[in-house]
Amino acid sequence: MCFLKCLYFLNFLDLEGVRLLTQFLQQLINGISLGSIYALIALGYTMVYGIIKLINFAHGDIYMLGAYIGFVCITYLGLGFVPSLIISMILCAVLGILIEKLAYKPLRNAARIAVLITAIGVSLFLEYGTMAIVGPTIRTFPQVFPQSRFEIIDGVVIKVTQIYILLVTIVLMILLQYIVRMTRMGKAMRAVSTDQDAARLMGINVDRTISFTFAIGSALAGAAGILVGIYYNSIDPLMGMIPGIKAFVAAVLGGIGIIPGAMLGGISIGVIETFVSGYGSSLYKDAAAYAILILVLIVKPSGLLGKNVREKV
Amino acid sequence: MNNILKAKNLKALIGIILIYVIVQALIMVGIVDDYYQILLVMICLNIILSVSLNLITGFTGQFSLGHAGFMAIGAYVCGYITVTVKQEFSFLIGIFAGAIAAALVGILIGIPTLRLKGDYLAIATLGMAEIIRIIILNVEAVGGASGLSIPQYANWTWVYIFTVATIVLLKNFINSTHGRACISIREDEIASEAMGINTTRYKVIAFAIGAFFAGVAGALYSLYFYFIKPDQFGFMKSIDILVIVVLGGLGNIRGSIIASILLATISSYLQEYPELKMVIYALVLIVIMILKNKDMTKFKKFITEKILRRQTAV
Predict the structure, then answer these.
(1) CB 3.0–4.6 Å: which of A36, B76, B126, B310 could bond B65 by disulfide?
(2) A200 to chain B, minimum CA–CA distance in Å?
(3) Inter-chain residue contact B246 with A113, CB threshold 8 Å
(4) Per the CB < 8 Å rule, is A298 touching B112?
(5) Residue ranges per structural domain of chain A
(6) Coil, strand, or helix at residue A256?
(7) For the complex shown, is ipTM > 0.85?
């Protein structure tokens, strides 16, 4: 690997330099694995926003439910990681479709603000509904991976969990790219997000396409939920709130509606956050994400990968 | 002078005094106990917050999700001044200082962010409010995460006076030239700019005035409930205020007042079922939004049909 070679070269640096570098690389690894989870959630935000221009606040809570479904599968049903992941993704997809049909579809032509408040309502409903059922206690997520860790180079450690997180994320992202770029449904999704009316005139079933988008986004969120449960070892009914907003920040950072943008944005937010808590104060960790958001919105509202669209009168 | 003493204004004045006298009498008799007094104060604070947010979101059309941030600034500045300056009426200075601080922050935040539109502005203001909250959380002088205790200076009378003042001032602002300029921005920003309105300036003015009154509400909150924590001014508080504004109708002050009363009452009754409170609140929210949308479309259809019929008759 290229960066390993790099490291060996840099070992010629003095001790302090090596120490700083190892610290830097360690933070980077932690940041990327956290960021890839943000990216998975951000993908759902970006796809839904791209297709119906709705900030789906409930998305973060679908991710929370994904974690709980995974928890039930692993702890009570004794399933392995991969079956749990698949079950969680499927159930989350179904849930996503249900939410879309029940709460958002009646408001398809309503004012944006009304839909946004409905999304917030759905989010609160999922959070506190879950809390009423499972109780507000924080639960320990079972260990599914060995706790061993590899030392890539002196002092830089990568955990098995982190490798799995990266692997799952990469596989899911390739799958998503395949669906969006190569399949008929993907083509329909892109068409609807470009121009809903034109897509309908071309014979595309817009409602079904929107449902499908919700399904895919929610499935990804469900996967992210399980991964976070494994990464942090704990889950609670309100865990979706802050990562939800941060994933949205990631989506905006990368350029909302753009799928590679969400990946880039998610990983950037994860890395930045890890660096802020590693080098600065962890108290300001959350503020960093918002500060970046505001900077991006002011400097380049279309996001890192977005194109500037001129306003026409 | 004649303008001020119009019959309509006199009626309003009598109404304001009458409401106060009735409530005061009920408090004296003991029908309105402490529990209902807290409810009344909550209603008044909700009115100040929702009417001021309505100026930003309803009348000027700028979608803000950061009202709780301004409220936090008002509450903390007022609380800090009241605690440090121990004079008899230092809390009044505190209220104005809190409100002015909130307005200044509003201008500071407004100038860069108000160039954004729609959802982007909403998210940017949300981020700003969260940053304000996190900064307060890290300032030891105001207690950080453990909160700040303030002597209880405000009572129902003060809260009522400030509520009435807010409504009157904002109503007059909206009916003034400046208010009309704000409404024109909501209707069509490009057209109003073409008419020679400095849209950026008016957006910032509306934002600052809204922030000012949010600061007043925050200050009153800290003075009445005498204990403030950064958690109380989170994202959910902004949402609560926005829900009141949307429920009452964008650009409708009377609607905001009615919705404030309604929602404060609902949430105070739901207080008895702490586990299900938020679930019910969420369901009410979704159902109201869906029903409201349905009724509105029917209503619009009714209006267009009526107008169409009249046109064909002519």
Answers:
(1) B126
(2) 23
(3) yes
(4) yes
(5) 2-7+25-299
(6) coil
(7) no
